[in-house]
Structures are given as C-alpha cells and as structure tokens.
Amino acid sequence: MRTDGTLPPSGERSAPEPTSGVQALLRRCLDEGIRISVAGGELRVHFDGAPPSAGLLSALRGHKSELLLHLAAHARRGERIDRLDDASRVVRRPASPAQRRMALLDQLDRQAAAYNMVAAYLVRGEIDRTALRAALDDVVERHEALRSRYQTVDGEVWQIVVPPFALEWEYDDVSALAPAQRELELSRRLERENARRFDLERGPPIRASALRLGDGVEAIFLGIHHIACDGRSVEILTRELGECYAARRAGAAIGRPAPRVQYIDFCHWLDRKGEDESWAHRFAYWSSQLESVPHLHSLPLDRARPPKQTHAGGKLYRRMGPERLAHLKRKSQAHDATMFMFLQTAFSVLLGLYSNERDIVVATPVAGRLHGDLEDTVGLFVNTLALRTRIDGNPPFAELLAANKAMIERALEHQDVPFDAVIDRLRIPRSRAHGPLAQVAFALQNVGEGELALIGAEVERLDNPTEPVKFDLQLLAQEDPDGLRLEWHYNRDLFAQASVARMADSFMQLLESVLERSDAPVFSLAPAPAPVSDAAVAASAFERLETMFERAARATPERIAVAMEDRRLSYRELDRRATDLAARLRACGAGPGAVVALHMRPSPETIVAVLGTLKAGAAYLPLDPIHPQARLQAIYEDSGAAVLLTQPALAGRIDAGRGERIVLERDDAPASAPSPPAPAAADPHAPAYVIYTSGTTGTPKGVVVAHAGLANLLQRMDELAPLAGPWNGSLWSSFGFDVSVYEIFSALCRGGTLDIVPEAVRLDPERLFQWMEERRIASAFIHAGYLERFAEHVRGGGAGQRLQRTLIGVEPIAVAHVAAIAGNLPNLRVINGYGPTETTVCCTLFPFGRTALAADEYLPIGQAVRGLQLRVFNGAGAPAPAGAVGELYVGGVGLALGYLRRPELDRDRFVAAGEGDGAVRLYRTGDLVRWRADGELEFLGRADEQVKIRGFRIELGEVRARLCQLAEVSEAVALALGQGEHRRLVAYVVLKPEADASPAADTVAKLRQDLRRLLPEYMVPADIAVIERIPLNANGKLQRDALPHICANPAGTGIVAARDATEAELLALWKEVLAVQDIGVADDFFAAGGNSLLATRLVGRVRAQFGLDQSEIGLGEVLEHPTVQGFAHALADALAMRASRSKARHLQALQGEMEEGVF
What we know:
alpha/beta; Chloramphenicol Acetyltransferase; nine-stranded mixed beta sheet; elongated
C-alpha cells in the first residue's frame, strides 16, 4: 500500500455543500480506488494503483475539515445496520423523528402541499412509455420508503410498507393546441402538481404523470412527498430510473443491486440506539448554542404575516461568473474556510444589514447519512441545522468568518441530533404563522443534482417557478460550468419580488466588497445606500408665525378667527388682544429668548396667549391641566419660564416662584388705545414653542422648535392639499401635543377659522364627527384610532362632504380604513404624517393615492417635507442599503433648535454627519424605517424603548423608572403590545419581599393608583402583571418572548379551575397527556411541558372523547389555543359546525324520503 501522507489545509474545493458535497467526494474516491482515513487528527490518503489526480487531491484539501468531521461521525456509528427479518417488515414500524415532523406539518394544514417535491422534465425524442412505467415500478420496488403509508395512533406516527405494485400514471395529450396554449397547459400542470396533496395514510407517497406536447415531445412530472424522500434520494431515484429504463429497453436486469438496508431498517437501528451518553453530550451543545436565541427573524416584510403559514413560492436568480467564482474559492481557501462557510457568513451579514439585528439564525440542510450502509437508500435522512451567527459590534469580515467557521464545524459534529428534538427540548414556541426557530435558510447544492437521463432521448429539467416554499426566504447556491448560480426562493405572501430583487443585488455587491476588503468591518461593506432625500432650504426663506397671522388679520379683519361653542373672536379682535398681551409680557421681561408658560385649558384665551407670546418675541410652553400637578410644576420649574399665563379656574395650582403670573380673564377688554407695535422680531430661526416629551431617565425634556420649521410644513401642506374659499379648521389635539401647533397655525396663518373642539365632544368619535358636520370643518386632524369609525360615518351618505384635507398619523394606519374614507369622499385629500417633536410635527408626508397599496398593508410615511433631509443608518452608523432596516436621521429646516437647558442631550441626539463645510446637523429619531421599492419610507417601530400610543410619545424607560420609585416594586419593565388602536401599554413588576403578602389584585390596583400621581393617564399601563423575575438573555438584555402572556386586567394569579363541564373534560385530558396535576384552564400546554408529540396525542384523545374527526379539529387548534379555556372555544365551534352539518344531512334525507313518496 502506498500513501501520500497528510493533506495540508489548502487547495481548491470542488463540492460546496457541507455534507452532500462530502458524500459526492467519497463516491468519487471509491470510483478511483482511493481510500481515506484519519490518523492523529490528520487526513491520510491510501491507494494501491495510480495516485489520485491533482484535481481530486485539490478537492480533498478543500474539504479537509468537513472530511475529518464526517469520518469522525462515521466512526461513532461504524457498527453494521442489521436488516429486519421478513416478518418484522410487514407490520407497522415507528417512524423516524424527521418523518414525525413531516406528519405533524401535514396535520397542521390539511390543505397545504408545501412538502411536495416535484420534478418536471421536458423529453425530446423517442419515449417507450411501457418501459418507462415499468422502470419507475422497478425503482419503487427497490425502495420501501416509496411504497409506505403512514398512520398516526394516539400521537405516535407509524410507517407501513406495502408490497410492490404498479404505479398509476396520468397521461394527457395537448399536442393539438396552439403553442401558446400548450405552454399554458404545461404551467398549469406544474402548478397543479405543486398543489396536489398526498394522502399519507393511504399512500403511496409518489406519483407520476405525463403531458404530450407534440411529436416526440413530452413533459414528465414526478411528485414525491418529503416524508419519503430528500435531496440525495432524488439523485438516487432519478439515477436508478434512467438505469432501469435502459435495462427495460434492452430486456436486461439492472446491474445495480437493491440496497441492503432500507429506511425502516435505519429507523429500527436508530430507535434501538436510543439516547445514549453521546446523545446527551451532543444535545447539551445545542442547548448551549441556542440559549436565548431569537425565535423569529426581523427582516422587514412587505405584507403582514398571515395567522396561518402559507407556502406561495416566488423565485429569482443571480449569477457570479467563473472568474469571480474562482476568486471566491481562493479567498475562502486563504481564510482556511470552505466556500459554504464563506457564503453563509456573507449571507448572515446581509441578513444583519437588512434586519438591523446582530443575532442571526439561518437554517441549512445536512444529508444525515452518517453511515456507509445508507449511501444508496431512499428515505428522509436530511436534518436541519440552525446556524447562529452573532455579529457583536462591527467586526472585520475575516474575524466573523473565523468565528463562523468554528461554529459550523461544531454544528456538523453534532448534526445527528434531530432538529425537532432540539425544538421540543428547548421548548421553542411553535406557531401556525411560521416555522420554529429558523425561517431563513441557505444551502449550497451539488452540480446536476436530480438530473434524469433516458437513453435515446434528450432530457431537460424544467424550472418550477411556483414551487412551494418551506421558509420565508431561502438562498440556494449551485456551482455549474458558467459560475455560481444563486437561486432566491421567497414567500410571495410576505415579500414583494422587488424587495427580494434589491436584496439579491445587495448580496452581489456585498460579495464584491468582501472579496476585495475582507479585513474591513462588516457594516462598512454595506451595498450602495439609499439616496439622501430632498435638498436643504435656509430658515431665512420663511416668515415668523405671528407675521403670517398678522397678514391674514389685515386681509380679513372681520372674519371669525377663533370659535368655541357660542364664543367668537374675529381676526381684528384676536390680533388686538394678542398685541395687548404682548405688551404686558414685554413689560414683565418676556421678550426674545424668553419662555412663557401657558397653564390653560383650550379656549379663545389660550389662542390669545399663544399669539401674544409670539408677538412679544418669546416662545410659548403649553402646560396641559389634564396632567398631574406635580409633573406640571416640575416642567415649569425646569423651563425657567419668565411668565406663567393661566385662567381664573386654574390660578394658584402652579407656584409661579420668581416668575410673573398673569391671569387671563374670559372677557378681558382690549386696551382703550392700541398697544404700541412690538419691536420687529424678524428672525424665523428664533424659538416659537417648547414642548416637553417624556425622557429615558424619568425626567421630561423640553424640545425647542423654531418658527421656520412650522412655516415650511404649512407651505408644503398647502402645496399637497390647497384649501378653497373661506374654511374652518378644527383644534382637536391636546394642547401639549405638537399636532396642536399645526392645527392652530394652519388655520390662523391662512385666514381660516379655528374651531376648538369642546372637551365633551373630543373623546366621543360619533359626537365629534357630528360636530364636524355642524361646524362645516374643511381641515382636520383625525386620530388613527378614529379612522375606522369615521369610515363608517361617511359610508353611503352625505356626511363629510365639506372636509377637504385631513392630516392623520401618529400610529400605524391600515390602508383599508383610509381607502374606505377616500372612496366615499373623492374631494378629500388624506395625508399621513410622521415626525418626532424634534422635527416640527411632521418630517415626512404621504398623500394617500400617490402609490398603489394593498388593503392589508399599513400606510407608508412617505417622503421628506421639502427642505428636510432623511438618512437611514444601520446600528454601526453606516448608511443602510436601500430596503434595509435602519434608524432614521433627519436634518434640515424643520429640525428643532435643541433641548431646553440640556446640552448633554443635544450632544447625544443631535449629531453631525460629514466633515468640514459639508457637515450636516441631524437628529437621531430612534425610529426604525426602510425605503420601499416605490420610493416611500416605511415606519417599522422604535429602535429603543420609546413608543407612541394613542398619539402620545411614551418613553418606556420613564414608565419603568416611575414604577421602580414605588415602595413595593423591586424591578420593572414596560412594553407596548398590539398595533394601531389596539396598541396598549403593559408592565411587568417584581415586588419587594415585604410586598408579597398582599393579594396580587390589591397590589396591582395600588400600583396603578400610585402611578397616576406621578404620570399622565396615558403613561399608566393598562395592565400590570406581577412576576418572580425579569427574564434576561446572556447579554443582559430583556428576553421579551420569555415573559408570560399578559391578560387584560388580570384578577390574580394561581391555578384557575374549570368553569363548566367542557373545560373540566378538557382539563382532565390536559393532565392525562402531560402527566401533571397542578395546572388549570389558563395554563399553556407547551409551557407545562407539552411538545409536538404530546400535542398530537392530545388531539387524538379530544377527537375520540367528543366524536370529532381530523377535518373538524386538529393540531393547529392546540397551537392557536394552547390553554384549556381557549381551546374550549375552538371545540365549541367545531361541535356547532358538526351539529349544523348533521342537521343539514338529516333535512336532506327527509327531503329525499318525501320525494320518494314515503310520506
């Protein structure tokens, strides 16, 4: 025997996929008489005849690490797999873990066919149909997995091998049709095969059909359910089909012997081995590797995720040429990595860039044939590995690749732990809406996998563009003579093709960057960023707000400027009273640079106070009396206001301290002589108002906003939706909410009438809409939570016809609601606005109708208000690619001047981008956005803990800080749950030991009562849950998905007893299946120890006890309703449906008897 010694870690890699590539390489060695072994941790090559070729040696070097892992795993299981005797083969046998998973998925959705493996071939030339049918029957006879059926009994899945049989083919002839029609029929047949379900209980899991397209041209379709097959099995099947066809044509027997070991032999061997000590060690690895792993990716979706997972497949392609592929291989080898490792790392970086996340989980398939006896056996051996890439900080790509290499090698060492066992053991939640743990996948496939060769004919594999998808997104790479083919599979119900195309292009650009600069930080390698939006406009281009008001007052002095119920002020009166007040304020020292606090309820006097403050050259600070007095006092003192303006009913509630207090009477008469005009205050860049928003430390912060930003917004609104003729605008917003600024000045700076919504009407949508009709409102802000009811209000009648422009926003808004409004009010211009207080009410606007939107979408927030710049940066501060999630930064004329007397906050939130004269001042919004393919900006949520609920911006950190100030609370966390008008603020608290004795309901009630003294009502959580500890992940961050489900206004804790007979029966089944007693009707099945196997068993017993079948209640109901009380509702619906069908059948039978003359 001769040997060439050990192989160094160099050379070119020929097969890309980490396990199927190894299998192909081992087969090649076998064919060339080469044997390999492991000695001292090194790979040794043995041969008796000719030495291995240079190409084979190069491939072995490129696969060295994978071969070492594979051979080590093979050594662990090197014992012989025995074949079951004939008697044992004819009885039902337990299914493998992978088959149990397939059966589980089949039961979850009785309509879907996601796990059909459909191959379509176009055959040109002579085809012997009889020989082809016989050849396929030969293959089915050779492989028992292809003639097995599957039964589920009490939660256990069994496989039953049936004797050989003749498979039925379906033949159709469309050759007489026109060419275009033939193409259409071909597509339809392929779509049909994709969608046809297999009946796994009856079998078989394989079918075949053919479509004659013309003389000597046929399409052949082979469909196999994944429960009986995997990718390697497809290779075996198609290879043997070609060989058996050639043998049948020649009248000879196939030269290849049938595999000694069949799939049920493997299952028996696997079951007999059980979970030994090595299994426990390997599982411990996965437990550690996946600790605190994210359960769902954060890639931005184009469409809302349906409650039930769909599998509508879409596909697109990209290609890397041979030269760049060679460069990629060299680069991989230079880093002592395989091409799979290199591409998987780059793909993970791409996912990190697009999702703005740093913890990335990607699924990858492994062949699972760790025993030599399984090389030529058809069956479901493939396993899924969850590869977790942690992009901590902004590491160089080379460093991340090295970490990923070690991670992948370790994962391959532990690849024989079934994916579903990992899911169940780690109690990772299952959902009908998405797959568990990993919804994005990557694989590197072999060249020519699954190709069919039929003697005497030319065979071309057809593309399957509507192939069902198992993942939300999957990237398949395949090396071929033309380079590297990149095949992107995506779920069309989640992603638009344009979005996936942008991601695919970004991946190509990222690869190019990595190949040239692998030592660069990963986030500096981002593809071309989205363009900066809009050009800068100088503040000097705009007028001050009071100047625009005064011009309107001169133009229409007798027009009503402000109205509230039966009170009216004309423009002349409002201007005179504001001028008088300005003189009084200046006399008190409240001139330019000063702040005037307005502690007032909405009224005409409030508007006098606003305009008088501006005329004095000062900035106004609203103090809304609906907030707690202590909070208002703290804000007033923090502001350093020179004057406190208030009303008689509120006088004395706030201590003015060293500032002046002026009480504005309702009927203050104007001065006998007009006040002297205010000194010219021409600077539009000067402060106009200060609004306090909640702060992360628990202390509110004052945002100082200039005149120019609002003047710019008003101008843009007039351009998007000009108002015709004299018109009325409403003031609905709370005085301390910055939208009120827009409502006030959009009317008073344009000669409109500002109608103040009465407090008794403001929070009652029906009364509000009626009031708008009576007041003939043309311009209004409508809160997002009111839109659905407003759509009902205007549907089918004459209501709302006077409304010309409405600003909406603050929260995500469903397209359907706005479409319903616009459909009934064609003259109404609906504008969705977005913007933090620091960007002057709105920095982006989206006029509804500018772009086509689906009814189930949320409105985009649009494009920049003219004069503002929008930039999107990733977590490392680099520009985000177009379509990627990133934090929005805003610059330009609408930017706030800063925080009042808080320079440290200014430095943190207002940053400079660029250098020298090109530097731009930007505000970090903390909001996550992305650019859509249509050029509109989409809001995705908060980057930190700051949220908006019912129009109010809430810093969750402030809520938490106030909770922790309470005497009973040790730790706390606040969260926003739900969407739109259903969004609510909730909190979880850990109590101090001395507080635990109190009943939970009493404690929660007291906490809410105490919080109301510290926070506005909108910042008091709607629900508070008492828990033992705050769950944190390994990085010390909140593990949100580990928090218990919070019910609305929980009455207490402990075991909840059954409330009726049905719940009692179900609870008994819950306890029996889970083998536990201390659970109640509110306890989660999976949290109490349930898994997919036990859930299947539970469903079987529920069906038996209540007389239902699998079409009436299934595994999906357990996933959707994992508590007894929730499941009881689903059961009641199923029983009602059965009763309804039974009644219908009974009536139909009676009708039949009547027709036959029985009565």
